Amino acid sequence: MRTQSLQVGEQVFHPAYGFGVFEGRLTRDEAGQPKDYYGVRLSEGGVLSVPVARAESLGLRRLVVSRKAILDCLHSAASPLPDNDRHRVVELKARWHAPEPMALPETVRDLLARGRTRSLTPADRKWLSSACERLSAEAARVDGTDVSEVRAALQREVDHLKLRLGAR
Length: 168
Fold this sequence. Notes:
The chain is of the alpha+beta class. About 50% of the residues lie in helices and about 20% in strands. It folds into 2 domains: about 5-60, Thrombin, subunit H; about 65-165, CarD-like, C-terminal domain (Methane Monooxygenase Hydroxylase, Chain G, domain 1, Up-down Bundle). It has 6 helices and 5 strands. It has a 5-stranded antiparallel sheet with strand order 4-3-2-1-5. Helix 2 (about 65-75) packs parallel to helix 4 (about 105-115) and helix 5 (about 120-145) crosses helix 6.
């Protein structure tokens, strides 16, 4: 995502702080040098200042993942996840914080595919549940609909895929 093109009022997401609305750019004097920041009003309260130069690497991005995009992704070809539990936890954490908008839906898809051949660990199941919650919240904002409606649709699809794929 090119954060330079953010428009005031646009909805954004930061992996560490959650959802918010872009309020504009501000410049602060730091050690005699001007430094530009994005101001984001967080949905959970408060204002976040994100250095413009590091915004993309920190994962700040506009909201773009719709319900349709999530459901389409769930039906695409899966990629393998590490078999080693510790390595998989590291991979899941990295994907949780990835700046790419489709990283989360792709990982949900990959975990569901993994469940076809192996039992998911309690940590895998917890991650999957949290990811579905976050995806539901984003898609509801993007689609302008109620989060419970998106959550129910996503849960139906996940349950359907688990049954169809024979998830354990």
